[in-house]
Write a structure and sequence with these properties.
This protein is of the alpha+beta class and 296 residues long. Helices cover 29% and strands 15% of the residues. The longest helix is centred in the N-terminal third of the chain and has 16 residues.
């Protein structure tokens, strides 16, 4: 780095000092800049390069009714677009046009992934709120739902049992939303209110709230037998699906052994449902069926 630029040596010319002050002022406005040593013989080349760069950037300014509008080149599609149509990733500050970023975010969502910066080897995550101006309302809603789903432990996930809602909530979120003044709010009754539709449901058996009826009696009632929950349980029994005792989610074995490691962390036997303790089987069921093993 040149000593004269760092103010460590007394400047010999007032013109040079003025130019350096102007240079420092310009550099302070850049997001990123770096200084390099230039040989005396290369000064002319650097000057011509700088002049060409200024001319090139000046050509990107377009006249409009409201004044001058600067354009930027997207490094994905290489098109020049107005600066207000450029999306800047929050942390890394990589910039791309709205059109490319919209396609990138939609492709990631279709893959079941959350969008991140498309720059090579950059792992910066794109914040949810900044995607609001990129995505259609329905896709933005899906994105928020997936981010929320990833933030809640499987054993704490609660879904509203009403088909026209089906909102995802955490157990703590539901408990806070249910009025503490309600006589059935926080006791063993298990009555909760959905944070979206405010409908009452049972946190224990995950069905619409059943007044003055215990969970076991409700499961035996005609009302439950004719419900969608009963149809799902009947289908699970018919197909041989197993319910995790910890998070109550249904598991279907497509291939592999009968040792199930649920996403909530609970391990059990797919055949009888017995828990595995310290990664060891506690039942006498066989560990696998040869027809379920995939061979390389």
């Amino acid at each position: 780095m040149c000593p004269s630029l760092t103010r460590k040596r007394k400047r010999k010319s007032s013109k040079i000092a003025t130019l350096i002050d102007q240079l420092n002022d310009i550099q302070s406005k850049f997001i990123y800049h770096e200084r390099f040593h230039v040989k005396k013989n290369d000064i002319k080349f650097v000057y011509e390069l700088a002049r060409d760069a200024i001319t090139f950037e000046a050509a990107n300014w377009d006249n409009s009714d409201s004044g001058m509008t600067i354009t930027e080149q997207c490094t994905i599609c290489f098109e020049y677009v107005a600066s207000d149509q450029i999306f800047s990733v929050n942390k890394c500050l990589h910039r791309y046009c709205f059109s490319c970023m919209r396609k990138h975010a939609e492709a990631k969502l279709l893959q079941g992934k959350l969008p991140e910066c498309p720059h090579e080897k950059c792992e910066s995550k794109i914040q949810i709120e900044s995607c609001k101006k990129l995505l259609k309302p329905e896709l933005y809603k899906i994105l928020r739902s997936r981010v929320k789903e990833a933030s809640i432990r499987p054993s704490d996930k609660v879904y509203c049992p009403f088909p026209n809602c089906s909102a995802l909530m955490s157990k703590d979120e539901v408990k806070e939303h249910t009025p503490a003044s309600s006589s059935t709010a926080a006791g063993e009754s298990g009555m909760r209110k959905c944070v979206e539709c405010n409908c009452r449901f049972c946190i224990n058996c995950k069905v619409p709230w059943h007044d003055n009826v215990t969970c076991s009696d409700y499961m035996k009632s005609f009302l439950f037998q004719s419900s969608n929950e009963a149809k799902l349980k009947s289908l699970a029994t018919k197909e041989g699906w197993r319910e995790c005792k910890n998070c109550m989610n249904l598991v279907e074995l497509a291939s592999g052994c009968y040792h199930i490691d649920c996403r909530c962390g609970y391990q059990f036997c797919y055949t009888c449902g017995a828990e595995w303790v310290d990664k060891k089987q506690t039942c006498g069921c066989r560990l696998w069926d040869e027809h379920n093993i995939i061979y390389a």
